[in-house]
Amino acid sequence: MTRSTGWKAGALDPYEGGKAAVAEAARNIACAGALPIGITDCLNFGNPEKPEVFFQFREACRGVADACRAFETPVTGGNVSFYNESPTGAVDPTPVVGMVGLLEPVSARVGSHWVEPGDAIVILGATRGELGGSAYWAELLDFVGGQPPAVDLAAERGLQRLLVAAAKAGLIRSAHDCAEGGLAVALAEAAIGGPYATRSLGAALDLRGYAEAVALEQLLYGEDGARAVVSCAPESVKALTRLAAEHGVPVFAAGTVGAPNGRLELEVPGPRLSWDTIALRRIYYDAIPRRMAHAEQDR
Question: How many C-beta atoms surround the C-beta of residue 160 within 10 A?
Answer without folding.
Answer: 26
